[in-house]
Predict the 3D structure of the following.
Amino acid sequence: MSEASRPQTVSSGQTLAQKLLARASGSDFVAPGDIVVVQVDLAMAHDSSGPRRWKPHLEALGASLWDPSRVVIVSDHYVPAVDAESAAILKLTRDFAQEQKIGHFFDMEGICHAILPQKGLLRPGIFVAGGDSHTPHAGAFGCYAAGFGATDMLGIVVTGQTWTIVPETIRVELTGSFKRYVSAKDVMLLLCRELGMDNAFKAIEYGGPGVAAMSMEERMVLSNMAAELGGEVGLIAADEVTLAHISAHGGKVSAVDLAWQPDPDAAYERIVTINLSELEPQIAIPHSPANSFPIGHATGAPIDQAYIGACVGAKLEDLHMAAQILRGQRVAQGVRLLVAPASSQVTADAAADGTLSVLLAAGATLLPSGCGACAGMGAGLLAAGETCISTTNRNFKGRMGHSEAFVYLGSPYTVAASAIAGCISNPRVHAADLAGLA
Amino acid sequence: MTEAAGFGRAFIFGDNIDTDLLAPGHLMKLSPEELAQHCLEAIAPDFAKAVQPGDFVVAGKNFGLGSSREQAAVSLRQLGVGAVIAPSFARIFYRNALNLGLPALFCEDAHRIAEGDQLMVDPVLGKITNKTRGEILSCKPIPDHLMAMVRAGGLIAHLHARRGT
């Protein structure tokens, strides 16, 4: 990684964050540090942070929703119900969606961040407020998408507005192209180490030829894990790839959507450049995504569980990556491989294209689509002393079950290679060994 | 000192105290009162029992990183924590804390405070008086109009007070 600081001239150029917040606040120009009131275009919440937290307050305040057609509710945290409490939370969410005539309600169809693009609900330029910390995921579509707590979200669904402080932007420039079995997840684990996780009230903006060459699902990984860097948003300017994805999923687009671009002379707080051609698989060791290293640091550590799940790590392409490694292989004795696709559409697509049968033949157990073990709520939790390697985005102490469990984070390639080996394994070495055997 | 000032002991924590430590995901179905008893237990098993109303949590950088779950701030409020004092906060936690009536104070010198120190904290003046060490530290003041919301118990309580509901 290399770094340059651009000379701070009296440039009038704007970052993408500035342009999107100027639009949302109805201003011609906003500068970092300005406190702005913004109009929200789309408000998203889930079963854990949404209706069950809003309903009592809405009733007590005698307030109603500003625009149910702009509200998205996704039941993804407590799905499917495993006890009376989770069933009650899901029922309350369902009833609320019906009573309030919520425009977009998705019950057990998958994780909210996977659902927004899958349903064609995103469009470059819009302001998306989400009641979940990984809302920056939608920034891959050139939206200003930020996460909020339940009380902020209550204010947003009642008024359609919120406030924010226009952030300074860190520009991440990706050059070169990936070696085989290296992916966007490895970029983010490297960035967690290099930029740290203490970038609150800042925007992360990704660009360069390395981003242009990425699929939308890989770009989503960059935007999603801007949350781990502490950023308010993880922005990627729209291009033809973006518009094609939105159209293919039933969303409305036009050529003017490509207008949301940062200026070439925008003033960034810092610019970091990563040459993808030099990047090796990365691994985060317990208990922080910032505890990351080139994978050689941890290879050989025994594992009990391999988990392919979450908004960041169980999209269709993530399952494809795992299947590339797992084809014709078996999971090691004593290791359980759990796969929780990010949405039921991903499961259906993986079944249709043969990916699912590759995973199942290797010994994978298929789990329901939802936040699952990543949020510490669903199937796949860990006992004290157990070790898991996971495609998810966080490995904080106690997040995936017992506080004395150990979670490593890696790409789908790395998780699949480790499941076969029974210990943390470099997918590039694993593949080379197989080629040697052939 | 203004009317917002509070007095209590300091409980010291390190950098990057995350929301899974503050409110573990697998316990989120518990009531707020029960969940609060597990606050920070993975790194400080006696904290929830030892902390008294008015005491302060003093921590390192990036306090509250991770999930958007408000239970992280709610648990500290439930335990009566008077304020969290740290050099930096994760963005969503910071907004949640003020919205839920928990002062979160940016203090570059938080590391100068030790476990058990007796503190007098005035968020409006931005002044932390360490009675144990005879030292005065400054923190970023919270404007009076925002402290009015915090003192009311957060945004929703403040709205009720204003609407008379």
Remarks:
- Residues 91-99 of chain B form the longest helix (9 residues).
- Chain B touches chain A through 39 residues (CB under 8 Å).
- The helical segments of chain B are 19-22, 32-36, 47-50, 71-78, 91-99, 144-152, 155-163.
- Chain B has seven helices and seven strands.
